[in-house]
Structure formats: structure tokens, C-alpha cells
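Exercise 7. Given the components listed, write out the predicted structure of the assembled complex. Treat all entries as one system.
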Amino acid sequence: MIIHHPTLGPRDSAEFVYLGDASLINRPDPTAETKAQDFHDYAYLRDNPAGPIRELWFHEGGDRSWLVVTRDTTTHEITAVEFARDVARKQGRSV
Amino acid sequence: MTQPTQKNRLQGGLIDRSEKFKFIFDGKDYFGHPGDTLASALLANNVRLMGRSFKYHRPRGPLTSGSEEPNAMVELRGGNRQEPNTRATTAELYDGLFANSQNRFPSLAFDAMAINDRFSNFLTAGFYYKTFMWPASFWEKIYEPIIRKAAGLGSLSMKADPDVYDKGFLHCDLLIIGAGPSGLIAALTAGRAGARVILADEDFRFGGRLNAETFAVNDGPAQDWIAETLDELRSLPNVRLMKRTTVIGAFDHGIYGAVERVSDHLKTPAPDKPRQVLWRIYTKQSILCAGATERSIAFENNDRPGIMLAGAMRAYANRWAATPAQRIAIFTNNDDGHRTAADMHAQGVEIAAVVDTRPNQPVNLDYEVISGAQVINSKGRLGLTFAELKLADGSSRTLECGALGVSGGWNPNVHLTCHQRGRPTWNEDLAAFVPGGTLPPGMSVAGAANGTLSTHGAFETGQKAANAALRALDLKTSRRKLPEAEDAPLNITPFWYVDGASRAWLDQQNDVTVKDVKLSHQEGFRSVEHLKRYTTLGMATDQGKTSNMGGLAIMAELAGKSIPEVGTTIFRPPYTPTAIGVLAGRMRGKEFHPTRLTPSHKWASEQGAVFVEVGNWMRAQWFPQPGETHWRQSVDREVLATRNSVGVCDVTTLGKVDVQGADAATFLNKIYCNGFAKLAVGKTRYGLMLREDGIAMDDGTAARMAEDHFVVTTTTANAVKVYQHMEFVRQCLFPDLDVQLISTTEAWAQYAVAGPNSRKLLQKIVDPEFDISNDGFPFMACGNITVCGGLRARLFRISFSGELAYEIALPTRYGDALIRKIMDAGAEFDVTAYGTEALGVMRIEKGHAAGNELNGTTTALNLGMGRMVSKAKDSIGSVLSEREGLNEADALMQVGIQPLDPTQKITAGGHLMNADGPVDAAHDQGYVTSAAYSPILERSIGLGFLKDGGNRKGEKMRLVSPVTNLTVEVEIVSAHFVDPEGERLRA
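Answer.
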């Protein structure tokens, strides 16, 4: 597969390490009353869609950036590649 | 000895008669010519019998003239280059070629295992499943060895492959797969337009099917047109021609795999050349011009040597000037079979008759055409002698012939179109599947592969596909006048198998007959994928290229469905059998992964150290001294010398991560379960990292070098993973923290200097302005220092051994000098280098957890560090570490274990059982993770996890290992065997 890195251009997937569902960015609030359930769901529950999925790839053989790659699991077509840090910020993650 | 003659060699052909190649097959000498394959040369020498079948050991000759061959498989070459299951039909002849037939004993002509043929009633579909059901214990010792001996293909040499295989990467605008008429015209069109083109063909001669035909192109021989075209293509710098190159798979995003057989046509590869190269080809567009494969018609005993596909017979005659016999017959259901008869006749081969299943075929003046008839059986023990016919009026007739060309139609080679999502569709005119569904992105198909079987059609569709690709590439298209060529239709009336045929072969390589397919239907196998697995149809090295369609057709008929309703099995890479060696390339043996050497490696080698692989690293395991004959002698000495005076160990392999930024401490508070915010500058702290699910991930130390600067260490094994995790936490979870990370594992050489004399030793190396006395540099201190008169270095007062100890780090380039300096300076203290074994013994004596304890199932609580998980702050894993299930009253706790009888041994992996009661999983109390002989305590000791272990010190238990039949009476003790109060550390 070829992943179009936002700054480094088309790169072979062999340069990357795969982690999984980008929902891992959405770490729950550790002070919430429902934290036990929230963290259980966060750690163990994943969707397994046949179709587009957003997932985390680490450019280990490159600039060490974590990327959010939108990939169709039925065709392997990649429709978007973003820096995970930008995604995290957009989703309101702050210190 | 008389020189063997090439009795069945014809006129013409694309072989070079000016040169003679001698070769040996089954111990006999033969001659052939450059341009021959092993199969064509054997046929020319009147050898039809080339192998025995897989299951029934029936005599077999070549069915085809190409890579789809199911029968003519040989062991090519000898010694350590012997390669089993090589298709004689693609093995290029070279002078001195040496090959043996396979799957026969004692000889090809007399095969004792042919008795299987008589027992064919027992060896039908699902034979393995039905016969060898029980008892299960018989499988490994009785059934499997017998099956492996009786059934099977070639044998391995059992010697290491001496050849080199390589991998390479290519990029192009357009990959054209197949260099027949459509591929050549496509390459010409795209090459002229300036596209970067790769034209790959599995054959050793470009031209595809044109090489096997007598067609004219532009009123001249097709070979002239091919030669002109290749000349022009070679003149274009943007075109790369790759013969002997099989494109084996179409992968994601326009990436193709191809195997180039660089040296297979030579006796041995040139000294500086690989045998084969696996190319990864990155493409923007591709055109599949892979041609078509002929299929057979099933009739009783249709597998005798001499019975082959009609198109293959024609190829042998036209390209290789070889015929399987001097008198041949044809059996066909389409016009293409007649073409073979005409070409063979023109070559002077006698035509017994053309048997056409279709009624009312035109009469031929040169030879007999029998319309509406069928070949229903054959005779000849080791090769065809007679064909039995059933004529249109139902009467019988016998034809004497030494070879029979069979044509059941042509199947487009759709394989690569299906490697992703493509599903072929049925073409009624061809009675065959053509490419359909979603093709791999950027791929189009031209020529016979797309169901356009005529040469004119190949030119037309090849040019069209090239222009479509040029448009997609934003390059200029062009339409030139196409070369003139034949444009005959196939005219086929589907005919799959002769009525009543039973032992009529569909898959000759796996010995699957019409009867087997019927039986599997009768037994309820309705899906085509089930049929394949139950009968093994199409599962051999040829993957059913010539056989699958016949099976599908019979299955459809039995189920009362159409062939497209039944569908095909899924085509998967590789297109043809691929050597594991070429997939591995140079990644063999020690080259499988990189080897990382520590800074003291050269010095350690000089000392005669024994090394051990730790991940990619080579680490000194122990340093044998003269007179030491057992590793324990060395290790015990190293431990005692360290504990009594001073020892030194290279610990560079531990992961090091530099953490800098205003929020560095906040960041460490997130990744470690214990607190770091209040750690003073100049101090080091042990840190435990949890996974988000509350399980321990890794441990190490973090040294605060400055307010905004920490140096973090990880275990050797987890260095890469932990760095990844830290970057994940930084970028994905806390994107606005002001913190930067970089791995500095290779940047610093680091040595542990441990033992009561370690300070005295280091005081000789550390520059005097740095006070490293116990007051000036107490336990857990860290700092930037200089050594040897101004070299910058880092010093940490941390200890894995439990002794007064330091770790000293210098830029890696000084690592070799530093170990020599330490050994010189320490001579007066008898400084001793120690390896990973002594390191392990000392950490077990001290009760420090390592990889065996941080094993992916244990929590901070299990490790005796439950109270370290700070409740005052959030950290990765802190929430889920509070889960009930991880905090039960009898949770496993780390303990020390020692045998009651000091002469007995603790074994890692053993389980702990109560002193009395049953020994079984239900009564399991815990297990041993690490064990060692302690030279200080002079007994075997161990670390392990025990239920409620914190409250069971002093308890007598049994350590059992049912695997090794071991039972040892043990006592549960503190995990801190040596210096439990930590007085030595702080000395």
C-alpha cells in the first residue's frame, strides 16, 4: 500500500507501523463519574466496519509522526491522511 | 554408443540448429538446441513419458507448452541446486542440463506405486477425510509418512541453496504484462508517447502466441514484425523490456510483484549475479496482456502420454520444430483445433483424422475430418497408440495415432484481474470467463486475456488500452494504422466431457476425474469452493489453469445451473509457483534482521566473550577465563567479583529517550503510574509504565538532568515499543503539551559499574571537580560530568545488581575507549567484566522484576508495586488498574522461592501447589518466572507469582512441572534475597 503523508508525499506502507482504530485518540475523561465504564469501552470496544475506517499509523521509518489514515477495508482505498495531532486538536483534546 | 537422434524434430522453428546442447534425462543422454525447452527437446527425441501422476502414479507426458503445465514436472539439476516440481515445459535448455523424473520408483517406465491405479475405487474424492479419520495418534506416525511417500511430487535436496536471490524496486507509468501481439503494440504506442513503460513476459522470447503460430503480419512472417517492434522498443530509453519475468500478483495501489529468472537458463548463475530477483513494481497504469490458456475435453483415459492440448502440439511444431509423434489426431469442439491439423500437416506430420464434436464440418482434401464424433477412450500403456471413437451414428472406430491434440476452447488468463475484487463474467461466445467486476485500480485488459482471441483483435485492443492509459497519464494519444493480421472467430460449441466418462481426467496433476466431481456432488458438496477442497481439483502447483473449467461445467450440469451461476473459485497470487528463496531475497540466516553491536563489542570479542542475541543486539553473555570449562563457573565468578569488589557491564542496549520541554514532567506523570512532578533536578527515580488496560508495560528510570530535561530508560526488549507509545501519548492524547522526544539509544555508550569498590574506581576516571562521594552524589543522584580531563559524560547512581553502583554514559564514539579505561583504572580492584547471565543472577538475588515478570499479564499490584500507582493524578492505565478483577484479595504477588533441600533446583515455568492436596490446574497457586543459582547464597533461588503471596512467607509448598515430571519442596521467602534493607545501595 502507499500512504500519502501530509508533508512527505507518497510513502510505502512498509515505512509505517500500524496501531488500529483512531478512536484511541478519544481517551475518556479520567475524572468522570462513569470513568470505569468509559475506560472499559475505550480499551476494549472497537467497530469493525466493512468500508471506510479511520486508523492510526506511525511513521516509524520516517518522521515519527502519528497519522490518521482513512482506509476502505473492502478496497484498501485511502481517501484521507491527516496528522493525528491535528485530529486530536480538532476533537478538542487539550492539556 | 550411438548418438541419439532427434527423431521427431521437424523443419523450421525458433531454435538455433548451429549449436547443439547435450542434456541428461533419467540418466540418458540427449541433444537439443538453443531455444528449446526441456519438454520440446525430449519430444524431439521421441520421449513422450516425462512423469508419474500424484495419486495413481499413472504415466504422463506434457499436456501443455507453457507455465500452466500439470504433468511434465521434473527434478532439475542435482546436488544442492536440485529443484523439484520444475515444469519441463518452461525449463530452458542449456548445455549440460541434468534432470530426473519424479514420483516414480524404481523407474519411470516401471513404477511400483502404480498399483494405486488398481485401487482407484478407494482413492476417490474426499479419500483423505474418509480413510484416515482415526485413531488420531495414527496420523503422525503411520498415515502421514505413507501418504507422503506414495503421493507427492519431487523431493528436496535437503541441502542449503547455494544461490543468491535479490529484491528490487521499479517505478513506471505503465506496466504491460505479457508481450504477445497486444502487449507489444501497447508498449509501442505508450513508448512512442513518452510514457515510462515496463513490458514484462514470463517467456524467454517476446512474441507470445505469435511465436507458436504461422500467421503473417503485414504480409510477412510475424517474426519479422516482432523483431522490428523490439528494435524500436529497445531504442526508446523510457521503455524497459523484461523477459523471463513473471508478474505474480496485483497488489494494493498499483503495486505489482514480479519474479525475474535471471540465471535459471544457465547451468549456474554468473558469480556476481543472483539466480532470481523479486521486483516490486510501482505503477500508475497497467495493461494485462496475459493471453489465454487452452482447456481439454474429458474422456476415458485422456491422460496418456501423447495426449496434449491441440494448441500446445501446434506450438511444439511451429516454435520448437518438434512433434510428439509422426502420426497424430485431433479432437476438438472449435475451429482452433483444425488450425493445429493444418499446421502439423504442413510440417509433414501424418494426420490420422480430425474428430470434431460439431456436426457438418467442412471436408478437407488433405486429411479426414470426422464430424459429430467423439474420442471416448484411448490405449497404450506408456504412451498413446490408439484412440477409440464413437461416430455420429453411434458406431465405433479405432484410430491409430501416437499423439492426440485436444481442444475444448480457450480460457482468458483473468487471474491478475481477480487479485483484488474482480470477479470474472461469463462470455457465451467463447464459452469462457472474461475479466469482470472491479479490476485493480489502473488496470485494463487487452487481447486474448480479455476474450479477444484473434491477432487483429489483439492489436486493436492493445492500442486502445494503451491510449486509454495515456489519457489517464495526461500524455498524448496516437492512432496509427494497425499491422494487418488474421481475424478469424473461434466458433465454439461447448463440449466438456464425453457421456458416460468416469475415469476421465480433469485435473491431471492432482488426479481428479469426472467421477470424483460427480461423487462430491452426490455427497452434498454444492459450493465450488467446497468442491475444490473436497476433491482437490485445482489445488496443485498449476492451480487448475487447464482443469478448473471442466470441473465447473460438470458441477453446473449436475446442479441444473448455468456455469456463471456456479461461479469460479477465487484466484490468488502468485500466478505461478514461486520459490520461497526469492521471497526471502537476501534476508536469510544472519541477514534476516540487522545485527546491532554494543560499543564494547570489539573489546569483549578480544576477551573471548560468549555472545547472546537479545533482539537485534549481540550482548556479552559471560566472559570465560582460562580453566573455566562450564558457563556456571564463569557466571559465579563474575557475580562474586562484583559483589566483593567491582564489576562492569555494558548496558547500552537499554532504550534511552530524551524528554525535553516545559511540560516534560507533566508528560512523565502521564506515562508513568508513579509521580515525577516533584522529582528534584539531579535525581533519578524508578518508573513503572502501565498499558491503558492496567497491565504493566515496561519499567525503567527517569533522570531529571534539568528542570525541563529528563533522560528516560526503557528495557532492551521494549525500547522501540515504548518510544512509539510515548509518541502516541504525546501526539494523540496530549497534543498541546510543550514536550519533545527523541530516541538516543545509539547515541550514548553506557556501562554499569557495580560493587563496593565502584566509587573508588570511578573516582580515578571522573574529573576531580565532580564530587561523587556518598554525600556529594548519593543514591539515585544523576548529573552531567566530565571524565578523563574534559570529556562530557552523564553519571547516574542507580543499581540493578543491588550493590553500590553507577551507570556512566559517554557519546558512543568513546565507548570502546571507556571500557578499556575502566578496565585499566580498575586493575588494582581486580575489576571484572560481567555479562547478561551474571546481570540476571544479581537482579534475581535482589528481587528486581525484568521481562519474565513484566510478561504482559501482570499488574503493579502483582509486582508488589500496587501502592506506586498514584491516586493523586491521572496516568495511562490508572483508571483500569483499579478494576475489581485486578484487585482481588488473593491476587498473585511476586515472591521469592527457594528449595528446602539446598542441593535441589528451582525451574522457571514450574507451578506452585500447596504442600498437600491434588496437583492440577484447579489447585494451581502460582508459577515461577525466573530462576538462578545464587553463588552468594550457594543455592538455587527463584522469583515467581503466588496467590496472596504477600501473606504466605515461610509457607512450605511444592513446585511441580508435569512436563518434566519434577516435584521440588520449596519455601516461600522474600523476593529480596540479598541486602533486603538496601544498605549496600546506599553505602
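Discussion: The longest helix of chain B spans residues 455-472. The longest strand of chain B covers residues 165-177.
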